Amino acid sequence: xxxxxNPATSYPDRKPxxxxxxxxxxxxxxxxxxxxxxxxxxxxxxxxxxxxxELTTAEWEALCDGCGxxxxxxxxxxxxxxxxxxxxxxxxxLLDCESGYCxxxxxxxxxxxxxxxxxxxxxxxxxxxxxxxxxxxLYLGQDLPEWHLLITGDAVATQQGMREAGxxxxxxxxxxxxxxxxxxxxxxxxxxxx
Length: 194
Description:
With 194 residues, this protein is an alpha+beta fold. Helices cover 21% and strands 11% of the residues.
């Protein structure tokens, strides 16, 4: 069994604890603000019109639904079976477990050096991402979930849709700070679908 997110231990084939988090601005309540459907940074329906490796940085970041599952500590049973993964409810120390967002996204690699940014060329080795993940879905030729912010254009509707679909770690995880290796194995959850 390979532990995929304990920064205190080094693993040669370690996958990222925090690939991408949304860069969408937050309003005063901490909720994602409604994006403008087409801006100079976001081309109209870019996720349908362009390959993942043709997206701008802003478009790539806009794909993230902010579920936070990629930031949970997980165990891969076999390097070759990317979908044979067990998620825990223990999050990277930078994840705000109440909101489900990285507390220091811009500088996360300073504090979690093995946090690797998700890129199109890395997706082939990241099938452990949850089934709702826009990056994974588009890589596999699937559509975005109907509740995705790029589909709804409404942050409140997106958050409600995510809750109804059981997607997201906000309010359902704990920080890795103070959690022992032994405790990790007792914190495996089944509410994340791969």
